[in-house]
Structures are given as C-alpha cells and as structure tokens.
Amino acid sequence: MYVCVCFGVTDKQVKQVVAEGATDxxxxxxxxxxxxxxxxxxKTTLEIMQQQLDVT
Length: 56
Ligand code: FES
What we know:
Number of strands: 2
Number of domains: 1
Helix content: 55-70%
CATH class: Mainly Alpha
CATH topology: Arc Repressor Mutant, subunit A
CATH architecture: Orthogonal Bundle
Oligomer: single chain
Radius of gyration: 10 Å
Order of helices and strands: EEHHH
Bound molecules: FE2/S2 (inorganic) cluster
Number of helices: 3
Strand content: 5-15%
Distance between the termini: 21 Å
C-alpha cells in the first residue's frame, strides 16, 4: 500500500529502509523523501517504522 502519495512511497519501502538500519524519520526522509511535501503521511510512516522496529 502507498504510505506517501506525494512521492509514491510504499509501506514495503519504508520497512526495507528500516530493515537496513534506519531508526528515525530523518533517515527515512533522506532515503525516500517520505513526508517531505505535505507531511500527511508522517504519522503512518512512524507507525510502520515502529512496527518494523518491534519485530526486528
Ligand atoms: Fe507524504 Fe505528502 S503524502 S509528503
């Protein structure tokens, strides 16, 4: 599913970047641009990141 419509970022991409070691929003933004336009996706992005951090 798309998390960030502005940049077409999917939950899979967010999970992948977290699996590669990202632990904060800044890193995700640097890699995917997620949340850097309208910002509506930031809450969901953080939730997905937290879920991924909880399972790893
Ligand atoms: Fe992600 Fe707009 S939906 S910045």
